[in-house]
């Protein structure tokens, strides 16, 4: 097992290197960070050349990549192109915010997904099953940003009609900056509710369908049939044997979905203006500033690789048929 | 085996589940007796006939297929069906509500929304189908080679797919799309296909890995068949089920991705309408002009929904070991 | 058993939601949600707080952005303020005396102008600001225009005399952001005011000489201004604090003002905003602003060779209906936005004249001109002259709904007149980064953000200037522009600029389109807010704002 983990981690390193190089190249050659300066008629061409030189923008991409690698290790991902801000502290702050809402979304959608999936499996072909199935499929087909926009409009219409604000349509909190106490927490919940709902919709659909299929497969398997034949109570059969075994593949699905949630976070954070990783990424990308984009990339890639590894290990732990050498 | 009275139900997991192999033979059937008599090969035909029958029993998939064909057909014949051209502006009817003249209303330049949606369907369908075909081809080749040869080739190819899977797809798309700026439907399709072939690759690889050990493959090798012939003649036909299903679902994914890219600012270049771009333009006009956002949105949802149901039905039809019988 | 578990789960989730809902209903009515204290105003800011946002406005290259000016006008003042009437009003000074031969400006600083820690605002601050601006350490970060023309600054009290080496006509633009010498002497400008407007010598306590102090900068969330309880020269602010919340998505901005989460917004004009006029409880104010959209015609080698001929350029201008485009774009937002008639002055400014009246929409004239030059109309309705099709690549920035709309309209109208416009939109970075500086375009449509001072024309239309993208070259115009930069008499300067404007219209070098309107939306419970369409922004009188 240990060799398996080490081998996986070693394999990830060339993947990370290759990814980082590709993305760095793309970001560096696609955008011009000095674009907004050039549109200012007061800034002279010599000034722009001088700025280019001082920020190493006139060197070939591979040299700049080398600078980035050096900065990434020695200076904690370095500083932004303009404003010379240290990237890592900013990234830490936004990671915290994004994780708050991604983790909430995962927990809620896992709980809902398991519940709906298992119930659909147990009551196959019932009205509940058909409704859940249809809603899941609609969930798959709906673009996340469209759902987010519709939710925003719904909240505003409710407010205009009945003068009660259930959830907020933008921002992380009503007051700017950190706070404590119950009111702060409640306020944060109210602000994150809509983004979480938007993100949950797709994930819940995914998990519930998967749980249902997995549960059905297990319920029709031989050992469950044996347990029933032995005369065990249905409840025991379901909870002791079926449910736990059906849960195992879900672990992989959740882990693999993690990367997808980061993507979903990009869209929702942009719409709801949340100070999170996705928003940070989009801002830096539009400013064509490669350093923050690369830092974001490294963090996300590492998290995804680790999560995949953890998922595979857990799968092996729970399913004794799987052996890793 | 199947009993004619049993209804096929929706037994699918979400897009992305691993599949098992379809059986190599089907049940006997009066039509097969005849074919035996005439000495024709029966194996492939009965398999397809059986699959077709199963598909048609899946009513939701059948209905969705019909709806999908209607919608895509409307897009294909847009130049006959559309009451106006999609570039015709009308400065006297800016952002007009739906009416008899303009069933879906008009947009900010006075262009008829219905016509734009029809042409948009055509563009989105084009992108979707192109992506489906391209990603299937790439994925099958990569996955097939990895599965068949195994060893270091497999390792290398799987690491490459890891590369693509490690990053959130949207992030990579944004970076790449920024490079292209606004693009034509073909360029966008190429970009999307290049990034989402990994799913099919994994499926094909998995199936080739297990098919490699089958006796008829060994027999073919012993008879002196080359690698390519074995792959094309024996392995791919037996993997065709999951490939087709995956390809179908990829079309839906591609349409959704086009919508998101357009929303974030990198979609198809105007004035070519595409559903995602229409949605983006619509929400720029403000939600109160609901007809600009609702109609393209509903069309996207219906198309992707139908594609998913059809994919579902195909999965049932081509993959009977996944069928559920009522306990 | 499983069913019970499910119901339990559902119950827990519902209970949590109910708690949130009741909690919110208690804590937030229509108004109090946006500010729990009666004296706080929440302003939605469309830009700001990104990863590289810096506050020090002396660094033009890094930090100069419109919203930065809005955030800081109530905090750090300057010699003059731009008023809504596009004039300069003395701010920290009572008056400024201009003498010529050589140019000298004497500033009389107000006796009661002082920093929040009690130190008076004096000539020392003037000198420090100038020295910072010309410090070679910051040469890549500060635009030296005007600063480098100053020879010396004398006076460390309330009277400051600035002597110039050369005449600089735009002197009123200088000293719009005065730095506190006693707090910042010896600090590194590139880092000291990155996250706060504060005094590093006193433990980063906020500092300012206006009605508010910048007390918090939460990146990604917002900026908080708190009332300056120490005296500044003007009236004490009525509000306790102003919170600028960053809401960078236009739709979210609209939803948040409609739902009352913010008290005011100042968005870029978008068609989506038109609905706000009809909502009860909100007031909408719109004026024609100092940004104007225009189309530049490339006369150099990389453009369409036809454009080198004057009659083609005139025909281009006459083939598009700027009035109807203005109405389609801005009619629902601000009906008074009409086609702009001059490149060098804007509507609302002194000296505005409709130089381009002769180049208004006239498709018949286009047809006549084409025929006169023996051009033939093809099957698709587009003319061909001497074998070259009259077709132009039309470049602008992608991702801008209004620009796309404008192009759609122009394309349609030009096609009807016989000229083909092809879509050549590119991302903003590409347009400003490569196409324009390389003169690689046929037609380009974009915006100039101008100041009240007409200096901006010099760079764009002088022969051989790096910012002259069209390669338009008229020696006489260049001479006039050069003179205007050194002409200290405002009337004579305006006369020179007017001559330039007239000539530009005669040469049809550029097609002016329309000025962008501003759009200020605020709740009816907010008082004292005044729209300032100049580059100063609406916070110029923040001390008069009040709620309820």
At a glance:
The complex is a heterotrimer of chains A (325), B (327) and C (548). Chain A contains 12 helices and no strands.
Question: Would you kindly provide a written description of the structure presented here, covering whatever features stand out?
Answer:
The complex is a heterotrimer of chains A (325), B (327) and C (548). With 325 residues, chain A is mainly α. Helices cover 78% and strands 0% of the residues of chain A. Chain B is mostly helical. The radius of gyration of chain B is 23 Å and the shape is globular. By secondary structure, chain C is α+β, with helices and mostly antiparallel strands. Chain C has 15 helices and 25 strands. The model of chain C is unreliable at 18-36 (pLDDT under 50). The interface between A and C is large, with 82 and 79 residues.
Placed side by side, the strands forming the largest sheet of chain C appear as 10-11-12-1-13-23-14
Unreliable residue runs of chain C = 18-36
Give the averaged pLDDT of chain C, no decimals: 85
Reading the helices and strands of chain B in chain order gives: HHHHHHHHHHHHH
Largest interface: A-C, 82 and 79 residues
List the quaternary state of the chains: heterotrimer
Structure summary, number of beta strands of chain B: 0
- Note the total helix count of chain B: 13
Q: Which percent range fits the helix content of chain C?
A: 25-40%
The description of the largest β-sheet of chain C is: 7 strands, mixed
Strand content of chain C: 15-25%
Compute the number of strand runs of chain C: 25
Q: Which bin fits the share of residues in helices of chain B?
A: 55-70%
The major sheet of chain B is characterized as: none
Number of helices of chain C: 15
List the helices and strands and how they pair.
The complex is a heterotrimer of chains A (325), B (327) and C (548).
Chain A: H1 2-30, H2 35-38, H3 45-54, H4 61-74, H5 87-122, H6 127-141, H7 144-162, H8 181-219, H9 222-230, H10 234-272, H11 277-286, H12 290-318
Helix pairs in contact in A: 1-12, 5-6, 5-8, 5-10, 6-8, 7-8, 7-10, 8-10, 10-11, 10-12, 11-12
Chain B: H1 30-37, H2 43-57, H3 59-76, H4 78-81, H5 113-149, H6 151-166, H7 169-180, H8 185-196, H9 198-211, H10 215-222, H11 227-263, H12 275-284, H13 290-318
Helix pairs in contact in B: 2-13, 3-5, 3-13, 5-6, 5-8, 5-9, 5-11, 7-8, 8-11, 9-11, 10-11, 11-12, 11-13, 12-13
Chain C: H1 2-27, E1 40-45, H2 60-63, H3 66-72, E2 80-82, E3 88-90, E4 93-99, E5 104-109, H4 123-134, E6 150-154, E7 159-164, H5 181-184, H6 189-192, E8 198-199, E9 205-206, E10 212-218, E11 222-227, E12 241-246, H7 250-258, E13 264-265, E14 282-285, E15 288-297, H8 310-318, H9 322-330, H10 363-372, E16 376-377, E17 383-385, E18 388-389, E19 391-395, H11 401-417, E20 420-423, H12 428-435, E21 443-449, H13 456-461, H14 475-486, H15 490-507, E22 510-517, E23 520-523, E24 526-527, E25 546-547
Parallel strand pairs in C: 1-12, 1-13, 19-20, 19-21
Antiparallel strand pairs in C: 2-3, 4-5, 5-7, 6-7, 8-9, 10-11, 11-12, 13-23, 14-23, 15-21, 15-22, 16-17, 17-18, 24-25
Helix pairs in contact in C: 8-10, 9-11, 14-15
């Amino acid at each position: 097992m240990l060799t398996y983990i080490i081998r996986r981690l070693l394999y990830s390193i060339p993947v990370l290197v290759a990814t980082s190089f590709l993305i760095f190249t793309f970001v560096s050659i696609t955008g011009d960070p000095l674009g907004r300066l050039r549109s200012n008629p007061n800034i002279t061409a010599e000034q722009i050349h001088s700025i280019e030189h001082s920020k190493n923008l006139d060197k070939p991409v591979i040299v700049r990549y080398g600078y980035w690698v050096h900065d990434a290790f020695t200076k904690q991902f370095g500083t932004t192109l303009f404003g010379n801000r240290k990237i890592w502290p900013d990234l830490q702050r936004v990671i915290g915010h994004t994780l708050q809402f991604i983790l909430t979304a995962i927990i809620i959608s896992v709980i809902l997904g398991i519940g709906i999936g298992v119930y659909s499996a147990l009551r196959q072909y019932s009205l509940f099953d058909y409704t859940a199935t249809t809603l899941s499929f609609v969930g798959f087909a709906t673009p996340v940003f469209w759902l987010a926009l519709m939710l925003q409009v719904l909240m505003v219409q409710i407010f205009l009609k009945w003068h009660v604000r259930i959830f907020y349509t933008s921002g992380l909190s009503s007051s700017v900056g950190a706070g404590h106490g119950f009111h702060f927490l409640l306020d944060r919940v109210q602000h994150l509710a809509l983004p979480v709902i938007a993100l949950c919709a797709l994930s819940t659909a995914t998990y519930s369908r998967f749980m249902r299929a997995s549960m059905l497969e297990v319920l029709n398997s031989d050992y469950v049939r044996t347990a029933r034949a032995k005369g065990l109570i249905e409840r025991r059969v379901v909870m002791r044997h079926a449910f736990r075994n059906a849960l195992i593949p879900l672990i992989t699905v959740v882990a693999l979905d993690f990367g997808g949630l980061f993507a979903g976070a990009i869209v929702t954070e942009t719409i709801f203006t949340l100070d999170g990783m996705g928003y940070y990424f989009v801002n830096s990308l539009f400013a064509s500033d490669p350093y923050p984009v690369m830092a974001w990339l490294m963090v996300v890639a590492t998290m995804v690789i680790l999560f995949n590894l953890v998922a595979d290990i857990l799968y092996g732990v729970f399913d004794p048929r799987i052996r890793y050498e | 085996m199947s009993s004619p009275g049993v209804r096929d139900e929706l037994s699918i997991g979400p897009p992305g589940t691993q599949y098992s192999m379809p059986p190599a033979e089907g049940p006997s059937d009066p039509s097969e007796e005849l074919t035996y008599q005439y000495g024709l090969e029966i194996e492939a035909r009965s398999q397809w006939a059986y699959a077709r029958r199963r598909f048609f029993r899946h009513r939701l998939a059948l209905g969705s297929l019909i709806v999908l064909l209607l919608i895509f057909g409307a897009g294909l014949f847009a130049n006959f069906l559309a009451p106006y051209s999609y570039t015709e502006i009308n400065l006297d009817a800016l952002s007009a509500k739906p009416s008899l003249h303009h069933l879906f209303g008009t947009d900010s330049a006075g262009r008829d929304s219905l016509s734009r949606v029809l042409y948009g369907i055509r563009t989105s369908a084009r992108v979707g189908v192109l992506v489906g075909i391209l990603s299937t081809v790439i994925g099958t080749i990569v996955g097939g080679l990895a599965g068949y040869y195994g060893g270091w080739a497999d390792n290398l190819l799987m690491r490459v797919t890891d590369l693509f899977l490690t990053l959130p797809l949207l992030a990579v798309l944004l970076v790449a799309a920024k490079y292209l700026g606004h693009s034509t439907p073909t360029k966008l399709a190429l970009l999307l296909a290049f990034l989402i072939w990994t799913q099919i690759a994994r499926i094909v690889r998995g199936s080739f890995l297990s098919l490699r050990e089958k006796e008829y493959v060994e027999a073919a090798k012993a008879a002196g068949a080359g690698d390519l012939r074995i792959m094309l003649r024996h392995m791919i036909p037996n993997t065709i089920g999951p490939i087709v299903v995956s390809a179908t679902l990829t079309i839906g994914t591609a349409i959704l991705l086009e919508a998101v890219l357009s929303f974030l600012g990198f979609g198809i270049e105007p004035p070519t309408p595409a559903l995602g771009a229409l949605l983006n333009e619509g929400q720029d006009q403000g939600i109160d002009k609901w007809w600009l956002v609702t109609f393209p949105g509903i069309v996207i949802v219906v198309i992707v929904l139908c594609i998913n149901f059809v994919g579902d039905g195909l999965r049932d039809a081509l993959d009977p070991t996944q069928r559920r019988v009522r306990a | 058993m499983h069913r019970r578990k499910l119901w339990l789960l559902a119950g827990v989730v519902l209970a949590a939601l109910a708690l949130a809902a009741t909690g919110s209903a208690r804590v937030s009515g229509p108004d109090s949600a946006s500010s729990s204290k009666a004296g706080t105003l929440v302003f939605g800011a469309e830009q700001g707080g990104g990863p590289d946002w810096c506050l020090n406005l002396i660094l033009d290259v890094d930090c100069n952005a419109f919203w930065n000016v809005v955030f800081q006008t109530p905090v750090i003042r300057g010699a003059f303020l731009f008023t809504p009437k596009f004039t300069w009003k003395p701010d920290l000074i009572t008056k400024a005396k201009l003498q010529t031969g050589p140019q000298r400006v004497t500033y009389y600083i107000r006796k009661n102008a002082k920093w929040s820690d009690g130190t008076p605002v004096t000539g020392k601050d003037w000198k420090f600001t100038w020295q910072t601006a010309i410090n070679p350490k910051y040469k890549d970060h500060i635009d030296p225009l005007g600063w480098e023309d100053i020879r010396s600054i004398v006076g460390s009290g309330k009277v400051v005399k600035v002597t110039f080496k050369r005449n600089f006509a735009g002197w009123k633009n200088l000293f719009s952001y005065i730095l506190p010498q006693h707090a910042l002497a010896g600090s590194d400008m590139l880092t000291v005011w990155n996250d706060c407007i504060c005094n590093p010598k006193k433990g980063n306590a906020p500092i300012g000489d206006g009605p508010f102090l910048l007390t918090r900068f939460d990146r990604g969330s917002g900026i908080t201004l708190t009332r300056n309880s120490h005296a500044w020269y003007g009236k004490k602010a009525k509000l306790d604090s102003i919170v600028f919340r960053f809401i960078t998505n236009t739709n979210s901005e609209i939803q948040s003002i409609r739902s009352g989460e913010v008290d005011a917004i100042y968005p870029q004009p978008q068609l989506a905003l038109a609905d706000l006029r009809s909502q009860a409880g909100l007031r909408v104010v719109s004026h024609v602003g100092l940004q104007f959209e225009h189309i530049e015609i490339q006369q150099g080698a990389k453009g369409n060779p036809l454009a080198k001929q004057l009659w083609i350029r005139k025909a281009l201008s006459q083939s598009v209906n700027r009035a109807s485009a203005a109405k389609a774009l801005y009619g629902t937002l601000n009906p008074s936005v009409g086609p702009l008639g001059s490149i060098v002055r804007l509507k609302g400014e002194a000296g505005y004249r409709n130089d381009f009246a002769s180049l208004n929409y006239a498709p018949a004239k286009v047809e006549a001109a084409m025929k006169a030059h023996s051009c033939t109309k093809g099957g698709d309705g587009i003319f061909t002259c001497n074998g070259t099709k009259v077709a132009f690549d039309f470049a602008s920035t992608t991702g801008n709904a209004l620009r796309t709309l404008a192009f759609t309209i122009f394309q349609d109208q030009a096609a009807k007149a016989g000229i083909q416009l092809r879509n050549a939109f590119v991302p903003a970075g590409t347009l400003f980064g490569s196409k324009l500086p390389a003169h690689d375009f046929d037609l380009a449509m974009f915006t100039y953000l101008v100041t009240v001072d007409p200096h901006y024309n010099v760079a764009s239309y002088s022969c051989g200037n790096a910012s002259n993208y069209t390669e338009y070259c008229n020696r006489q115009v260049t001479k006039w522009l050069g003179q205007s930069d050194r002409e200290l008499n405002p009337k004579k300067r305006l006369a020179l600029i007017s001559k330039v404007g007239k000539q530009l219209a005669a040469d049809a070098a550029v097609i002016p389109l329309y000025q962008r309107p501003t759009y200020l939306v605020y709740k009816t419970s907010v008082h004292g807010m005044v729209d300032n369409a100049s580059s100063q922004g609406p916070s110029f009188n923040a001390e008069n704002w009040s709620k309820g």
